[in-house]
Amino acid sequence: MNQELNTNKSIAKSSFEETKVDDGVFVLAHKNEDNLVQSIAKEIDSDYIQFHFCIKGSSQFVFNEGRYRLNILEENSLLLYNPQRDLPINLEINPHSWIVSVLISIKKFHGFFSHEADYITFLSEDNKDKKYYKDGVISPSMAIVLNQLINYNLNQSIKPLYFKGKAYELLSLYFNRSEDADIEQCPFLVDETNVIKIRKAKDIIIGRMAEPPSLQELADEIGLSLKKLKEGFKQIYGDSVFSFLFDYKMEVARKLLEAGNDNVNEVGHKIGYSTSSHFIAAFKKKYGTTPKKYVMSLG
Questions:
Q1: 233-255, pLDDT tens digit by residue?
Q2: Residue 136 phi, psi (nearest 5)
Q3: 256-293 pLDDT per residue, tens
Q4: Which candidate, 238, 234, 78, places its Cα nearest to that of 173?
């Protein structure tokens, strides 16, 4: 690592947990649970597209020996691609931050979208030799997959197969979201005040997930019209308010069940279900299995 990375703060060197899931496809994951910034360096050649996802906390990409820095914040993603030069990862991961990256060769990637190249902006004929950068927001569906990639309990022999499925699921959700909500062309997001209000709405429904306000109550509380709340939430998070909340509640339930401190009834009550039957039905709708069977599968 270049010394310029270490000028103003204590930095501990670390490394990714790296999993090869296919030819030309790698998943990199790292949890920094320490109180120090951790520095990770990895050589990546120009044949690879990089997808980076910050699940928790924040990190900084360092370019040109420290002369340029690019932040990636919690619940945000970053796509980097430069066909004209190698783009090594020099990453400073802040304390109590988690990051997952998917690296995929352009050859492999083209194979996925060979009939839909115009749909993926940087694969179009006009852009194929240009460098490409895009940031975005992690949707609730993506957050679930990312947490499954960084918190897993698997026999090592099946880990590559599991990661392969999750990596491809993550990419499909990433590009499906792009079609659903074109953030780059959204006039709503030009107004930073509105963005702050929508993020506040997300914090409110998460904080009160057991007894969330109605949409109108939520709109009144953040100071936006009901129409702007609905449109803005969909544009930022790629989902309606209550679909987002449903996904979030199911992810909380899954983590509580994995922790093993609460029974099915208690988990359901904690996330706002008055009867266990309603919670069981909701969990099965989301994950295709009942909470009890899910807990048994962990053993």
A1: 887 777 789 998 998 999 899 98
A2: -160, 180
A3: 998 889 999 999 999 999 999 999 999 999 888 899 99
A4: 238
Distance CA 58, CA 64 (A): 20
Which residue from 86, 90, 82 is spatially nearest to 133, judged by alpha carbons? 82
Q: What is the CA radius of gyration of the chain?
A: 20
Q: Tell me how far apart the alpha carbons of residues 118 and 137 are, in angstroms, rounded to a whole number.
A: 22
pTM, entire model: 0.57
